[in-house]
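Morning, I've got a small favour to ask if you have a moment. It would help a lot if you went through both lines with me. Thanks so much in advance, here it is.

***
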Amino acid sequence: MRPLRYRVRPGSWETAGATVMEGGVNFCVLSRYAERMQLLLFECEESPDPYEVIQLDPRVNRTFFFWHVFVENLPEGTFYNWRAEGQADLRETGSRLDVEKALLDPWATTISDRLWDRAAASRPGDNVETAIRGQVLRDDYDWEDDKPLFIPLSQAVIYEMHVGGFTRHPSSGVAHPGTFSGIVEKIPYLKELGITHVELMPVMAFDAQDVPPKTASLGLENYWGYSTHSFFAPHPGFAVSAGQARDEFRNMIKAFHKAGIGVILDVVFNHTAEGGAGGPVISFKAFGNEIFYHLDFEDRSQYRDYTGCGNTMNCNHPLVTRFLIDALLYWVRRMHVDGFRFDLASALARGEDGNPQYHAPVLWAIELAPSLNRAHIIAEAWDAAGLYQVGDFPGYRWTEWNGRYRDVIRGFVRGDPGLVSEVATRLAGSSDMYEGRHRLPMNSINFVTCHDGFTLCDLVSYDHKHNEANGEDNRDGHDHNLSWNCGYEGPTDDREIQRLRRRQARNFISILMLSQGVPMLLSGDEVFRTKRGNNNTYCQNNELSWSDWGLVESNRDVLEFVRAMIALRRRHPALMRDRFLTGQPEYGQTLPDITWHGTRLDKPDWDDPTSRVLAFTLAGKVEDEPPLHVMFNMDGVEHTFELPVIAGRHWCLAVDTCPEGGLVVPPEAQHPLQNPDRFAVGAHGVVVLESRSV
């Protein structure tokens, strides 16, 4: 055996991953059943074989389940993998140790997937030439004076976006399309739009090859990124230089913060890219299959799948909980992010036996961790196995994507009758779901569209999904869309249908911005972007999914309307209350904080199964804030609404969604209504009046 190029020492188990220290690099990973461990070192990311293999001695390089070694004077930039040797035992322990597989460090902060071959990692045999590799890099980034922002969610307007798709289209005009750097060039656009936070779809390194075989045969890939394999590393495909992905991400964060915009990451802790029993061995399966995943009770070679993705992370195992908390702390402390949205978060509420736990350790650890107490935490409060926790997610700080808000508002705007009572509840912050548990309106993340489903344009243009391009015979994606095509399926030259669709889009935006809680917009909705009826573009890394920047001009009327509605919301604190409405005067006001109406004052149609109209008067929350009067008419005919009289004040038109292009009148251009007693709201229309002193 030839002598090693580098001297080695036992190293430390206290710092996982590859850590550059004085005099060398400390390596540490976790494996319970491994009997021997090898560290493989590569000169570059494309080296077919390691130039150095370091054998770890369990007598000196193992502490509890942790394997560790210190390599003296190892050059920065070195690439590395691990091999774990031991007895596989699928039936009894669930161990999938396989010495032939080159394993990725789960704690790697920079990775290379240039040689990656998912198929080679899925079949028996050595895959050292095609494995994903970690890279050793010093962390000496200069943050200057940057810190995570703390913008209260009560004041937030969230914008959900895909890092690659936001600037990948040729029309973006950025120097580096589809990258963190490309987004930096578009921050002025986002600033002018008026949003306070971006919510980035997955940026933790993911497997783009993780798609069904037929989908792959069409040349498609996992575009959305809900297939994470590295929870500490930014996705290299979003970087100009893969080896600089970490710092390029930080540059983007710093630029967002300088613009006063917070960054929320969509994190996928419910499953990994390794899939089920036939999926690839990347890291967790070999290092600790029985620790990291829910395994079948009777046959531990099989996986319990609560996610629909082949496996489910065993999040409430103590070691996995620690791993996930450490990942969150890393992204807050070292990457300066401002919060997290947790995909299929109810999977995290399942105990090691698979049953829901209200006091799930990982959820309460996230809730109570002091270093996360200023980070926003947002749950997609359901999973793929039927656990639905919207309104009942554990904890106080946890906010939730409010799926009930989405569904009720969609039904109301398309004209479903008899919904006005629940619509009022959703508009008022969903107190039925949150107030009884001492939570607040800001616990409700209100949305009409998100990445998963129709865009706003498609919501008003299609009655049915059209996902044939995905290669799954249109079986994928949701069927329950609560959409309305306004009389014709898909594109049409009929001007009346086109006008109605844009009016419906304005109605959705208006209702969203007039609701208590936290509004979230889907990227591209502000310019009426279509995905041609495909409601599951997870595999479409092409112009179907990319943001078309030509729409900024061709659909400028929609863009200007969205900007104006965000501005109206942000100048009215009464729309951003941090406590629930009571129907009583408060804050020194003489008006009740809210009064509900139908077409007649003080007579809302709570019990009318045919009603499609609702109105309310909202008092100001702070001194000199004018009251608002809002009228919704989702009927197919015009309705005339009675207007309340407020002594010493008159009503001015602020918003009307019915005129072509919509009408939003800024305060300085408003004039008193000619008829102060009543107002006719057109079919499928929303009108907002602002009160001014006489």
